[in-house]
Write the structure tokens for this entry.
Amino acid sequence: MNNMKGEINQKNINKTVLVTGGAGFIGSNTVRLLCDRGYKVIVFDNLSTGYRHFVDNRAQFIKGDLRNSKEINKALKEVDYVFHFAATSIIKLSLEDPVGCYTNNIIGAINLLEGMRKNKVQHLVNSSSAAVYGESKKGLIGEDSVKKPLQPYGSSKLAIEAILSSYYYAYGINSSSLRYFNVFGPFDEQQPVTRAVPNWIKAILENEPILLYWKGNQLRDYIFVEDVALAHLAVMKLKGFNYFNIGSGKGILMIDLLESIFKAIGKKTEIVDLGERPGDPMHLVADTSKINDTVGWTVKFSLHEGLNKTIDYYRSKFNNK
């Protein structure tokens, strides 16, 4: 599969999907896929970390904040499905301001669910995280592995899943939480930049040093953003309270990932080791058999394909400076 586009399903044309955080990295990629598939899309975003120009021009845009219950309640009128991406997602910021992280993530999710309950919206796909697991033993991490979040961000995501469970059993709101492992791809313009792939690509293109933690010995599971977007559509109509890992199912050492990026770009720059980093598990690789068995979702893009697409995106930005 070379792109996210597919045949427009006529059944989708009259269905409306509200996407919170749809001006951000994963959200904007998913909005484009929804539009390609014929859905009517409403993006709800306060633009605190997203970008208005990332929103597909086929989608309706509402500037609003989930902490304002009136704004989200109004936006949910005549909506069929909700994709929830809006959150404080930078681990460093959650460590610096845990109260802000919990307020934004948990109160925002509750306001969204209350709006759904009042407007009788019955289907939610929630953006969760592998950060709910914390440190793990060697081997693949299954959905029912022990959960010991290492930072406020991870614990906020785990708390939201518990809230989703209660809203299903108490009010019948169906939800599927997707626990992302390491997502990368175009339109990742996080500020401040903390994710390794965009950070390293930009540094190499600009002949700047690479900042590396733990000597690159962390084992990670990297998945291309278009595969993540496809996972959302795969589970959007499921009933019940569900949770799935979203990853490639393959681990790669960070130092090996860096070497792959060097090779794809065709040059190397200096590496600066920054030592240890708090809240950083050493081993995080997904078992994705549950979502595969449930809806047939599997990864379509190899790491090599994804890196090339991502490098092309940042190279075009670099060349247009």
Remarks:
- DSSP finds ten helices and 14 strands in the chain.
- The chain has one domain: 13-319.
- The mean pLDDT is 93.
